[in-house]
Write a structure and sequence with these properties.
The chain is mostly helical. It is built from nine helices and no strands. The chain has helices spanning 12-19, 25-40, 44-57, 62-74, 78-91, 96-108, 112-125, 130-154, 161-172. The longest helix has 25 residues, at 130-154.
Length: 180
């Protein structure tokens, strides 16, 4: 089944301006890069510790909190990632990326209606957000597959359903593409 794609990071420059941090941009970018480098090197525990230390010193910085949520999700700690993303949607509801990544977590849990609503919110905030659009298509395809399966249970003789189910199965079984 196709996996939904989390957003890799929030647009840094827009966030820095929004948070009044534009003067510290190089230092912040270096810290973000270091946390992501540690994670990429398989040192996710160290990356999380460094992110926590940074967040303690800069609690209003949404970028590092977003990176931490991605680290938690990648570390198979979806409940912690979900809690952090929910907090971000309350504190910075104007950012589309936390809504998208929350939808990814909910879709993975089979909570497709929640994921659909979250993706719609992300797209209201940023209509040109390609990753959220792709994820919306994936969620809608999964919802369609569920509807066709239910219809087949109710009307097993319907000859129009098997080709639709097969087409969606092929789509949903395709190898996932990396998020972008």
């Amino acid at each position: 089944m196709n996996r939904l794609h989390p957003s890799p990071r929030i647009r840094l420059s827009a966030l820095l301006v929004a948070c009044g941090l534009w003067l510290a941009q190089p230092a912040l970018a270096d810290e973000y890069a270091e946390v992501q480098r540690l994670h990429g090197a398989g040192q996710t525990g160290e990356a999380l510790a460094r992110a926590d230390k940074y967040i303690a010193a800069h609690p209003a910085d949404p970028q590092m909190r977003f990176i931490k949520a991605n680290l938690l999700s990648a570390s198979k700690r979806p409940a912690e990632a979900e809690a952090l993303l929910l907090q971000m949607t309350r504190e910075t509801p104007e950012l589309a990326e936390p809504w998208n990544n929350l939808a990814v977590l909910h879709a993975a849990q089979g909570l497709l209606d929640m994921a659909l609503a979250e993706l719609q919110t992300a797209l209201r905030l940023n209509p040109g957000y390609a990753t959220a659009l792709e994820n919306l298509g994936d969620v809608q395809a999964r919802l369609a597959a569920q509807a066709y399966q239910r219809a087949r249970q109710l009307d097993g003789g319907n000859k129009r359903l098997p080709p639709k189910i097969d087409a969606l199965r092929g789509l949903l079984d395709a190898p996932p593409k990396p998020g972008g």
